[in-house]
Amino acid sequence: MPSRIAAENYPLEGRDLALVTRDEITESISVAPEIRLCDGAPSVARVTSSAVVKWSRHIHLSEVRNMRYLAEHTKIPLPHDIDAWEAEDTTEGDEFNMCYILMEYINGKVLIDVWDELDETAQHGIQSQVYEYILQLQHLDVETPSPIGGGISEGALFTRYGAGPFESSDDLEAWYNDRLLVCHDYGHATHLSPGAFSGKFKKLVMCHLDLNQRNALVGDEKEMWLIDWALSGAYPPCFEKAQLAWGASSSWRMGLLGLVGKEAYQDEVDQLLATTFALGTGGYAQPWARSNITKSIAS
Q1: Pairing outcome for strands 224-226 and 216-219
Q2: What is the pLDDT of residues 128-187, one digit of tens each?
Q3: Which residue, 215, 268, 23, 234, is CA-closest to 142?
Q4: What is the Cα 118 distance to its own chain's centre?
Q5: Which of 72, 82, 239, 291 would staple 235 via disulfide (CB 3.0–4.6 Å)?
């Protein structure tokens, strides 16, 4: 995200951010240059030439915990966080507190902005770097299926409403078995038997789960940086591939899938993608059998 903005236009330029109060940081946002990667993305304000603030009611401190864990356990280039906090929001009707993440600004180009300008060799080199990052993530064994430190699991594989928090692999398997029953209720995924996910999610690794071209930056030294770890967490290895494969048509995704390999976790990926009705259109639905039991108890 290169910038031609003069340093004097950054409201906290020259200040030691370790000594700047959180109130001062939040107040600076309204006069700082804004970075918006796409419609609907969280707001990002560049408060100094080397630091940005990401803020929204729809991001959580678990994103920072993910980043800190990965900074300690991998060599993946990602922004260094400086501070993060939640501020209680008293606005009527707002369900979530506002979350702020103060982090390092990465000087680079958003991959989606330059992808079509690259030749096939350069594109493959970038995909190979990101694939190597996937391998680093998949060498990390984690015990609980969730963002690092716990919390709600979010992203397309968990419906638009989120799911959890999950306390164990058994919980995650049970949730997916329920999603499968919803599919069956509406005539989808009938080739899978009830309980098909039982015993399938015992191994958990770190996953990014949002490896799109807006979340990759080409640095000054042509190194690839991964940003936006909001949906990341510890999940079965097949989840990363399933997320890439869901609706994949771009050369970016197809190239990554080619590096992952056609046979890798393919049965598990096929099962996950068979439940997309209950993750999308039917995301709010519950299995009919359970709903009938609940109504019977209530009456």
Answers
A1: antiparallel
A2: 999 999 999 999 999 999 999 999 999 999 999 999 999 999 999 999 999 999 999 999
A3: 234
A4: 26
A5: 239
Q: Name which of 228, 208, 258, 32 is nearest 112 in CA terms.
A: 228
**In b/e form, how buried is each residue of 167-202, taking b as 16+ CB within 10 angstroms?**
eebebbbbbbbbbbbbbbbeebbeebeeebbeebbe
CB 283 within 8 A of CB 275: no
Can you tell me the distance from the alpha carbon of 269 to that of 246, in angstroms, rounded to the nearest whole number? 9
* CB atoms inside a 10 Å sphere around CB 93: 4
Single-letter amino acid code for the residue at 178: D
Dump pLDDT digits (tens) for 55-111: 998 899 999 999 999 999 999 999 999 999 999 866 655 557 899 999 999 999 999
Residues 97 and 57: beta-carbon distance below 8 Å: yes
At 136, give phi and psi (nearest 5°): -60, -45
DSSP 3-state of 122? helix
Contacts 24+ apart (CB under 8 A), 119-125: 123/251, 123/252, 123/255, 124/255
Quick one: which of 27, 18, 77, 15 has its CA closest to 55? 27
Structure letter (DSSP) for residue 153: B
Would you call 225 helix, strand, or coil by DSSP? strand
Report d(CA 268, CA 179) in Å as an integer: 15
Question: Measuring CA to CA, which residue among 113, 136, 126, 135 is closest to residue 225?
Answer: 126
Tokens of 202: 């015992």
